[in-house]
Structure formats: C-alpha cells, structure tokens
Amino acid sequence: DACRRMGVEGVSTHSFRRTALTQMHNAGIPLRHIQEISGHNDLGTLQRYLEVSPEQKRKAVSMIGW
C-alpha cells in the first residue's frame, strides 16, 4: 500500500478516497458529479463511501421534531 511505503500508519489510500468523497458531498456537490469524478459506475457504490457524522444524523432527526 502506498501509505505504508511512505511511512504513514493507520490510514490507507482508500481512507483518503472516502474522506475526499465525503467532503465533496458535505460541500454540496451533486452526487452525480461526485460519481463522475470518482469513476463509480453505480451510484449505490458511491453512497457506501459517504460517511454520515453523528451531528448530521442529529440534525436530520431534529428536522422532523424528534
């Protein structure tokens, strides 16, 4: 793995990819655009990469008054 070769422990190129895609999504970039950038053929595959923070979950629930 490239990270290990560079002496970076505890992360992988996959984790960098996940972070970049999540940050694009959080910045409001449309999923279709992120899909094109990431090269995912299937939107479902892309969505598995996107992380949802506890704060985002709390905000979503509060929007419906729970």
How is the main sheet built? none
Helical fraction equals 55-70%
Shape: flat
Low-pLDDT segments: none
Count of DSSP-assigned helices: 5
Instruction: Give the DSSP E fraction (strand runs of 2 or more residues).
Output: under 5%
Order of helices and strands: HHHHH
Overall tally of structural domains:
1
- Overall structural class, as computed from helix and strand content, comes to mainly alpha
Work out the radius of gyration. Answer: 15 Å
Distance between the termini: 44 Å
Overall mean confidence score, pLDDT: 90
The tally of beta strands, per DSSP, is: 0
Structural topology:
Elements: H1 2-5, H2 13-26, H3 31-38, H4 43-49, H5 54-62
List its traits:
mainly alpha, 66 residues
Short characterization:
With 66 residues, the protein is mainly alpha-helical.
